Amino acid sequence: MEAVSETDVQFWMAKAVNWGEATSCSALLDTSRHLGSLRSFLQQVLQGLQQMMNMWPFSHFINAILSCGLVYVCSERSQRLLLRCLNCLYSAEPLNAVEQKANMWIKNMLCHLISEEEGSVAHATVKHAGLTPKRYHSEALQKVVSLMTEEVIKSCDGLPNTSARCSNGNIHAMSTACAALVTCPQMSPLIGALLKHSMLCGSSCLNQEFIKEVSEALISKRLVLEDEAVVNLWCYSPTCLEGAAVSLLESVLSDHETMTQSLDKHVNGSLLPQASADHCHIFISVNEIYRNVLTEIDENLAMRALIQVFTVCFLQRLTGQKPQDRLPLRAFFPHVMPSLLTPLLTAPSEVPREAWLDHLSWIRSLLQSVTENEEVGEDVRAYQAFFEAWFLLVQCGYWVDTAAELLVLAAPENAEPLLWLLTFFHHPTNRGHQRSQQTAVAREAWTHLRMLFLTRPPPPRHLSAVKELLSSSLSANLVLHLFSNFTVFSHGPVSIITEITDKVLTEAAVKHRALWILASIRCRLNSAATWDDSVHSRLRTLQDTLLQT
Which InterPro entries does this entry report, sorted A to Z (predicted)? Predict the structure, then answer.
């Protein structure tokens, strides 16, 4: 392509000035006649800017074109050429006063592009092209973002190695410029491209303020990005991943609607299960966050429900991957005894119903062998193995729910392993022989509940006994877990079940905890191999009853 001559620059400078000052039909006709030639000239200018060290001979021409508003009379291709010329004039790392002055001029020009003041481009475009300032601002930002997005994408292509990609200081400059604009809807493509670049680059080339603003905007739902961009953000910044995990936790603990609606849909909507299945380190990080919270509030049923549902959603996403792309379970649970992974991480829907009791007995025997070595405070490794086993049971709480369901109609000779699992789930430590005491409480509660729900009419003394057991601060959640499963899976009339529920669950706090247990049951039933309409109907009725009262 020929070099740009000074005569050409002077010719187009004069044209830009004339077009900017004239409003007649002949001037507009002259503009339309020359747009094709202008586009060819702009292509030459762009090539000159990309090749020359001293680029300022073109700056006054670009200034005239942009200032007169011609940028929005031009075709889209010409507009993009103008913006690329402006981008070429910017120095990511100015080395002297001239380059600093150049950068200041470019920033002022961008401000001029979006200003509503008289004499600005917005004012000129209203005069020449009939665009409103609002429409102009939106289109101006879209075109600038489109140009910058292309530049980011191109910076990832055709480079020999990762270090070459990382040397592009423009990426850091672009992310710095975007920090204050992340909530503008038009910015999403550029933000996504920058985050993708960070993954390909593998180094910290993005402005930290930009990362912080993007994370906060996502959590507050003031920014919408494609899933890939969100996951790239979490891979780039552990702080942003932690913020997303905590945000999900806070939303579950504070939003009562998640108790009665589909908790699994709420968790999947966070994108964390999918990201965890695709990136092992994300799953381990989220697990660690929830594990630390659980140790502080281990009796919180909402926290346990979230951990259980998150694990279920994660396993579903992992199972959906192609076998050749799927990491082994051991990679996601590196500290758990391998013998525990298969029996606990196998969903109840994957085991025939008639084999549930044997499967639960198998789980119980494995966990019991771990607890036999538990002497808290004496052997750190034994305690760690014990804690990991218990936490895996919390993650796979669907098997505890399955045990509670079987207890509704279980024969006395089959109840022992099921009661042991339920007790270990709620009372893992055995200080002062606490577990054996709580197993006795569980057995007593189960006996009263069988008489209460399977006898007609319900005997009053058993109803009083269940209420008394629920009032115990130590065993309340264990008894409530059993009681909730009896309300859902016993075969009595719904009217009698709701009547018993109203008489037993009289305190608001107890009803609130019962709703979380019902939410866990509902999630397990949603992923069951078969669908029982009567059970789901009963569950919805119970949830509505507890909410209304």
Answer: FANCC (IPR000686)
